[in-house]
Amino acid sequence: MEIVILAVVIALVAIGAISGLVVSSRKKKQLPPQAPPTTPTITAPPAEPQVGEDAAPPHDESRRTIEEVDLPDAQTAVEEPVALEDPVVAEPVAPEIEVPEPTAGRLVRLRARLARSQNTLGKGLLTLLSREHLDEETWEEIEDTLLTADVGVAPTQELVERLRERVRVLGTRTPQELRILLREELLSLLGTDMDRAVKTESAADIPGIVMVVGVNGTGKTTTTGKLARVLVADGRSVVLGAADTFRAAATDQLQTWGDRVGARTVRGPEGGDPASVAFDAVKEGIAEGADVVLIDTAGRLHTKAGLMDELGKVKRVVEKHGPLDEVLLVLDATTGQNGLVQARVFAEVVDITGIVLTKLDGTAKGGIVIAVQRELGVPVKLIGLGEGPDDLAPFEPEAFVDALIGD
């Protein structure tokens, strides 16, 4: 027992000795010196931009007192007012007056455009007539060609009968002989002895009065403007009456046409009485001593009785100055037989004295000229062959037929 106690004591003493040695060795090791704490640098925010005097550093400035400021005398304090110059107002620039092409030979110059219609009528007929045997089937094809070209039933039957008779009697067969034969018969249908001049001279001591009528979309207002160019090209002075008051664009359009050739346009308020505008236009034409007064009326639907009655009113009011010298009906050549229906209704309301066929180019068929003349018994006086300002030409039967059948 004593031996055990002694062993425990010896073990405790050994453990204590070892612990002392370890502690003393740690004290001998030196730790690395630590850097002194640094104070953080604080950056001031950028100064806001200043305006005016605040932008510069303040500085001392000597200021004068009120006693040191020289005041003006009472007599010199009141100065005479400075005269301001009147603002320079630019004068309106007058539109440049155009010189239209002369009307003489205009249709001949436009022949190339008119010739686009010849494939259906002229060349088609010449091809059929040149066949070796002209049997019934061929004559039926000739008749169909004429009807397709809007010649009309009655004129077609008349032309076919006359062609059959002359071919049988004369025995013509060469292309040149057939061309001469066809030219003569077409001219006979068109009528070379009809008076196709547009009447612009009045029997009374007033300007010639021309009224232009037609349905919507036929080019009526444009035709009126182009007709003014035709008359100016022939040396006539013109006053335009914008009696289409239901469409503001029509009035502006007509005035533009007039300004181009130096013709004055009489217009009224939008939606006003067209008869009143027509009356004033003739009155102004008389006062100015103009040669011609052209009156553009509103487009009428031939199926509306009220609108057609109003057209009759315009005619009656204008005739208080004097009789109308010309009433031109504008028809769209591309409408074909529908144009003939329009023509009949207008002829019942006003006395049509002449016809203007517009859009008679490659989209139309030349036979409508024959049909409309036969329907109304009045001549085609003007034809429109395009959209150009000088594409309205006096109708010349010989030039028209030559363009249809070619040389």
TrEMBL record:
Stretch list, region Disordered: 26-63
Record membrane topology: Peripheral membrane protein
Coiled-coil residue spans: none
Keyword Thylakoid appears in the UniProt entry: no
Pfam families: SRP54, SRP54_N
Matching SUPFAM superfamilies: Domain of the SRP/SRP receptor G-proteins, P-loop containing nucleoside triphosphate hydrolases
Annotated SRP54-type proteins GTP-binding domain residues: 379-392
Main location: membrane
Places the protein is found: Cell membrane; Cytoplasm
Catalytic activity: GTP + H2O = GDP + phosphate + H(+)
Enzyme class, spelled out: hydrolase
Keywords: Cell membrane, Cytoplasm, GTP-binding, Hydrolase, Membrane, Nucleotide-binding, Receptor
Its EC number(s): 3.6.5.4
HAMAP family linked: FtsY
Protein's job: Involved in targeting and insertion of nascent membrane proteins into the cytoplasmic membrane. Acts as a receptor for the complex formed by the signal recognition particle (SRP) and the ribosome-nascent chain (RNC).
NCBIfam families (alphabetical): ftsY (TIGR00064)
Protein's name according to its UniProt entry: Signal recognition particle receptor FtsY
Organism: Streptomyces albidochromogenes
